[in-house]
Amino acid sequence: MKIFVVGDVVGKPGLQYLQRRLRTLKRQYGADLVIVNGENASGVGITPAQADDIFDAGADVITLGNHVWNKRQIVPYLEENCYILRPANLAPQLPGEGWGVYDAAGWRVLVMNLIGRCEMAFGPDNPFLAVDRILKQNQGQYDVAICEIHAGATSEKIAMGFYLDGRCAAVYGTHTHVQTADERINPKGSGYITDIGMTGPIWSVLGVKPEQSIAMFRGDLTEYFQTAEGECALGGAVFTIDPASGICEQVERIWDREQ
After folding, report:
1. What band does 121 get if pLDDT is binned at 50, 70 and 90?
2. What is the pLDDT at residue 222?
3. DSSP secondary structure letter of residue 125
4. Looking at the annotation, which residues are catalytic?
5. Which end of the chain lies in a sparser environment, N or C, as judged by fewer CB atoms within 10 Å?
6. Whose CA is closest to 57, among 15, 87, 28, 27?
7. Residue 213: in which H helix or E strand, if any?
8. Residues 171/183, Cβ–Cβ less than 8 Å
């Protein structure tokens, strides 16, 4: 089984690049399940129309993160569509679900979307305790487990990778928009990478026009951030998994650049 995960889609340029390239890459890597983080499709947040565009581009599941509520029109969509996940360790009374079990090549795949607490601007539940509850609740209901942790601190993501080693076939990070070069298989057989990067403009600061980011760091008066334009790339990873054992056999980092 091959699970293809795609990093944060940023703005209109990122969405358009995903629409141009995802189905081709899905065929190229023989992906059985495609998971796309869409929380930045509007720059900050995602609308129902943008979620539909991501699904139409070839995604099977959409994950979100700290900008999940920036576009409030997504709220009823989260309630109606079980293929889009908000972080599972947000307050339980909030709309939507943070995990789901999906079919991939005849196998049952549990996909979990978590958000970190270290250096984030709000206080979700402990993601380590939350993932224990989800795995226990779904015991016997899945063949393979996948966990995305949307977090700012590399230490929190790495710790989660070790915490779930042997319990999840793959653990990967999103949020920082910068792809890390530490893809590996952990000692007990879980595939891992700290951050899969982003899908959007290359000549940008995390997708934003460089001059706007520079102005912010200088302390200048700034305008609402705008997505940069120009050449784009898709960041992600492919996990090759033996579904019978739940062991990851290979992790391949993907950075697909416009030619």
Report:
1. low
2. 79
3. P
4. 67
5. C
6. 15
7. helix 210-218
8. no
The dihedral through the CA atoms of 55, 59, 60, 62 has a sign that is negative
Lateral strand order in the sheet of 191-193: 99-104, 107-115, 144-150, 170-174, 191-193, 184-185
Number of independent structural domains in the chain = 1
Whether 59 shows a pLDDT value over 90: the answer reads: yes
In the numeric block, which tokens belong to residue 214?
A: 């520079």
Contact 35, 148 (CB under 8 A): yes
Strand locations in the chain, DSSP E?
2-6, 8-9, 33-37, 61-63, 84-85, 99-104, 107-115, 144-150, 170-174, 184-185, 191-193, 198-201, 232-242, 247-257
* 97-129: b (≥16 Cβ within 10 Å) or e: ebbbebebeebbbbbbbbbbbeebeeebbebbe
- 191: domain CATH number is 3.60.21.10
> Which residue range is the domain that position 177 belongs to?
2-257
pLDDT tens for each residue of 175-209: 999 999 999 999 999 999 999 999 999 999 999 99
pTM of the model: 0.95
What is the token pair recorded at 238?
Answer: 């492919």
Listed in sequence order, the residues at least 6 apart from 259 whose beta carbon sits closer than 8 Å to its beta carbon are none
Instruction: Please give the DSSP secondary-structure letter assigned to residue 111.
Output: E
How would you class 23 by CB atoms within 10 Å of its CB: exposed for 0-12, middle for 13-18, buried for 19 or more? middle
CA distance 64 to 60: 14
**Is 9 in contact with 44 (CB distance < 8 Å)?**
no
